[in-house]
Each structure stands twice: as C-alpha cells, then as structure tokens.
Amino acid sequence: xxxxxxxxxxxxxxxxxxxxxxxxxxxxxxxxxxxxxxxxxxxxxxxxxxxxxxxxxxxxxxxxxxxxxxxxxxxxxxxxxxxxxxxxxxxxxxxxxxxxxxxxxxxxxxxxxxxxxxxxxxxxxxxxxxxxxxxxxxxxxxxxxxxxxxxxxxxxxxxxxxxxxxxxxxxxxxxxxxxxxxxxxxxxxxxxxxxxxxxxxxxxxxxxxxxxxxxxxxxxxxxxxxxxxxxxxxxxx
Length: 237
Ligand SMILES: [Zn+2]
Fold this sequence. Notes:
By secondary structure, this protein is α/β, with parallel strands linked by helices. Helix content is 54%, strand content 8%. The protein contains nine helices and four strands. It has a four-stranded mixed sheet. A hairpin with a 5-residue loop joins strand 3 (89-93) and strand 4 (99-104). The protein is elongated.
C-alpha cells in the first residue's frame, strides 16, 4: 500500500544484501532495442516509479505472505537520494525487521520504462521472501569456520587464522550469491508478471549493464544466465 510505503528520503548506508549492479554507460550490444532506448524525462521517471510501487508492492506483499511464515512482509520502498550513488537497488532490514528496498536516484533516472522498475522491485522483494540476508550470513559464517579450520590445521599463527577467517567469510558470502541472484530473478519474474508488468521487457535492463561473465568469485551471474532464467520462468507461468 502506498501509504505504508511512503518515500523515505534516506541517506543511510546499510548492509547491501544484493545489488542489481551499477549501471555504467556500456556499449550497446548490437541488435538490442533496450540498449539504445532513450532515457525518459525525470518527471516521467518519478511518476512511473510511484505508479510501479503502488502496483507492485501489494503483489510482493501477497507473494511474501503466501510463501513464508513469521516474516515481516510489509515492504517499505525508499529512495537513496545520495547524489553520488550509481544506479543501484538493494534490500535490507530495518531494526524492527521490516524489509526495506532502496532505489538510488541514478537507477530511477536510468530506467527506460516501468517494466524495468517493476522487475527491479520484484527482484529485490524476492531476495527478502527467499530469506537471502539470513542465508548469506549463514554462508559467511560457514566459510569463516572452514577457512579458519584449514589455517589452524596447517599450523598458522593467530593472525593467519584471523586472516583466513576474514577471507573465508568473504568467499562464503560471495560463492552463493550467484545462486541467490538467479533465484531472485525467477521469483522477481513471477511478482512482476502478477503485478501486470512485462518481466521480459523489464529484464532488458540486463542488456545495458556490464556483464560480469562467469568469474569464480563474481557476485553476479552472467547476464545471459539471468535473462535465460526470466525466459524460462515466464514460459512456465
Ligand atoms: Zn539481487
């Protein structure tokens, strides 16, 4: 509901569970309509953003209640209005455990259409519904334990163990994030479609962001895998 999702002008640096990925001016892949699509005007973008929140938030809330129990499903959608922030969106929890989804101004301005905004919102809501913040923290802890164990076995100093723990936490947290991204893309597709937006058109967003490729420690899956997940999910709807 829009009254619950008042646009909070927040300037808070918070834990970023996931990022949609910064949008850099990337050379357009040939034959991609989305990449060459012009930006919309800022007043149009603002209106479109408000409309998307009004429409998608209740659907995300419904999906959340249907798929979880004992989880706060009352999404608060907020704008990160720090002007130096790149185009990005992320999901976090406030102190009361309420899910907050931040859009940076850069992302709102960069979106080519409402479907892209709806898809990003669906994707971020999906991270919360799937419990990714908790699962990522658990993965980080498991990674730290394993790496510290290895360091101790090899007779490492206290400092070496600490370093290993830190590295392990990083590796543990990152290793799973590709799977989480694809999971969020799939559930985000469902939310976007049920809210009446076009997830395939929304996912054209990916054609404009730098492709992280398939790096072992990359935090994001290759863009082609993401688009493929959206296609498959749409086909199954
Ligand atoms: Zn994500």
